Amino acid sequence: MGYTDIKRGFPDRPCKVIAIINQKGGVGKSTTAINLSAALGETGKKVLVIDFDPQGNCTSGYGIEKEELEHDMYDVLLQDEPIENVISGTPEKRVFVAPATIQLAGAEIELVSQMARESILKGIIDPIREEFDYVFIDCPPSLGLLTINALVASDSLLIPIQCEYYALEGLTKLVESMKMVKTRLNPKLQIFGVVMTMYDTRTSLSKEVLEEVMNYFGKFVFKTVIPRNVKIAEAPSHGLPITMYARSSKGALAYGRLAKEVNRRG
Ligand SMILES: Nc1ncnc2c1ncn2[C@@H]1O[C@H](COP(=O)(O)OP(=O)(O)O)[C@@H](O)[C@H]1O
Ligand SMILES: [Mg+2]
Fold it and tell me: Which residue segment(s) compose the domain that 214 sits in?
């Protein structure tokens, strides 16, 4: 079944294009892109996840075999391949993935010499966005041209922050990049929300970091915090989101609550 056969859950509400972004690696961006999209799918929403990281974690995490792909987001971005040709279904029937492979790593350099190089992804998403309730862009851990393309193409940003020392380090750089893109290329860009990941209830550190992040980002921080949960870490190796791999685990329940909060905020 193709993505146009499945109906949107919010036909009266415009689609939201949200970049899942933090230039630090390992903070839970891809995990959130996979599991939040699946949880939203379970609430009846139709979601496209654009894998925009050459590591392709959303692609493999949703069980898509990279070796079998003829085309990926690299071809869409730089070889004029229509995105419709690369979008794939997933085990969660309302979620679709535009996949990435290591091929996308070449885009960072090739983009430099392109015309309107910052706006290519926007030109790709705009014509199809109204097919979906949400489009997520899973960003690479850098502030290069792929990430700038994501910032230009998005309405807003979802920032996962890991509960650890120096959690806020580097985020001022992200906020600066956001401001620069807002001034020059995408005036409507805003923060959608901040989600705390890998929260450990047994340590006071997690609590301290949460407080620090609340002081900095205030009302943007979601009430739902995602706990550190082994099932969340295991799920990608089974090619399934947590909602399908371990639906009553703490991790699945947390992403379910986050999806409800996201829908309310939308
Ligand atoms: N809530 C969680 N509990 C346990 N492990 C997690 C959780 N969130 C992420 N992880 C693990 O942490 C690692 C980094 O997460 P990932 O989403 O790939 O980060 P990023 O996309 O920001 O680089 C992965 O191995 C992932 O399985
Ligand atoms: Mg990632």
Answer: 3-265
